[in-house]
Amino acid sequence: MTAAPVEKADVPVPTGHDMPRAVTALVFVRDRGIFVLWGLIIVAFSFWCAPYFATLDNALLIANAAALTAIFAAGVGFGVMTGVLDLSLPGTAAFAACVAGWLITNGQPIWLALVAGLACGVLVGLVNGLIALRGFNPIIVTIGTLSALSGLAAVIAGGYTFPGLTGLTFMGTDRYLGVPAPVYIVGLLFLVGTVFLTRTRDGIRLMAVGGNAEAVRRSGIHSDRYKVLGFVISGLCAALGGLVTAAITTEATPEASPSIIFNALTAVALAGVALTGGRGSLPRVLVGALILATIANGLTIRGIQPYWATVTTGVLLLASLLLERVVQTSVSNRLMASANLSVHKKQV
């Protein structure tokens, strides 16, 4: 005697209504978690460092301290989002600053020195991009460029520095409406960069090339052109950072500080920018730089040695990488489970 067939309607099917919510929550943590983290750090230091931390003057100090890191982090971010990692930023900054310093010292107008410095960044980015297109590893290429540029900067400066660049204070130590000049520069840079990446055709294509250059190429878009553009923008940001550094210190030095690339990479990693390219957000990169400055500021107010700020940021960096991996894996698994559930529902 055969058993009666079971109607399809009698088969229990899991609803899975929580899947979209779970995925949405994970994506929020990935894309907006850094803003929450910065808010928590501010609240913690406001109590721990009261009454000196939560003041307008201290907020301006933090913003000014984060400015240089933010400029270089923008350069790293543009490169990474395009799918390349430009390690030549310290050398580009030193080279651009020394070129501008040499011109100013030899009686050339300030505007010409600044244009020449920025043009150096564009030229370096163009060279890096064209060499990388020949099939060379971009990391090796930019390390070689870093060494060459450091040497060229020393040659231009004769092994010394260009002191007394007081004509650059308008973009360094001067304040406008009580706000330091570098803060305005950073605000304009990130505003223009964000609009470019999110509202223009070239910016969107730039991100697409970072995500999957081959797919972009097959769609008829000249992907190599956008790879070079990523290098050029990165070099331009590095040159701007070098000029702002010279404006703050009123001297141009040929020394290519390795801390520049370390801090910039840390800010980019904290921002959750995918090092594989194709995904990222400049506002998050800016918050990453602000987090580094906030931690250093708070620890300084408490009288804690500066090296603990480096330890803290290193731990945050490792934690952010771990969180990125966990969130990405969880999102992928839940989306796959949701897709399988939908197929199961159709079959039942």
TrEMBL record:
One matching Pfam family: BPD_transp_2
GO MF term set: transmembrane transporter activity
Membrane topology, from the record: Multi-pass membrane protein
GO cellular component: plasma membrane
Principal localisation: membrane
Keywords: Cell membrane, Membrane, Transmembrane, Transmembrane helix
Annotated compartments: Cell membrane
Regions crossing the membrane: 34-54, 60-80, 87-104, 110-133, 140-161, 181-198, 228-248, 260-278, 285-301, 307-327
Entry annotated with the keyword NAD: no
Protein name: ABC transporter permease
